[in-house]
Design a protein that fits this description.
Blueprint (H helix, E strand, L loop, with lengths): L12 H17 L2 H11 L2 H9 L10 H8 L7 H10 L6 H4 L27
């Protein structure tokens, strides 16, 4: 598994610019009532639909079934704990450190308009 959050990427101006906000979010998520409120606000079909709408070029692909599939894990036991752990935890290994360890053929497909991990960002370079 590669970096679970952007804290491991310190050589990109976008992350450096966002770092104060990321640290504030980490701080707030360590407060259980705030973490619960944020999680509950995010774990809504309309929120998921809006986020997916910003990722999918074909907006018609963001249908009720896809939203339900993405949202389902939010209703499992310990979902809040996992959410907080992924956001606030250590970044984990960086993809570029893991790639040399891959010993089998690997096919990578990467959209050139990916809004979350842009191809001109540190992972794409």
């Amino acid at each position: 598994m590669g970096s679970r959050n952007n804290k491991g990427v310190i050589n990109d101006w976008r992350i450096v610019l966002a770092l104060p906000l990321l640290l504030l979010i980490d701080f707030l998520l360590k407060t259980p009532p705030i973490a619960r409120a944020l999680f509950d606000a995010l774990a809504q079909p309309e929120t998921i639909r809006k986020v997916l709408g910003g990722v999918y070029v074909d907006k018609a692909a963001v249908d009720d079934e896809l939203v339900d599939i993405i949202l389902a894990p939010a209703f499992t036991p310990n979902a809040l704990d996992v959410f907080v752990s992924v956001i606030t935890g250590p970044a984990g290994p960086k993809p570029w450190d893991l790639l040399p360890k891959v010993s089998c053929p690997l096919f990578v497909a990467w959209g050139d308009t990916d809004p979350f991990t842009p191809i001109d960002g540190p992972v794409g370079k």
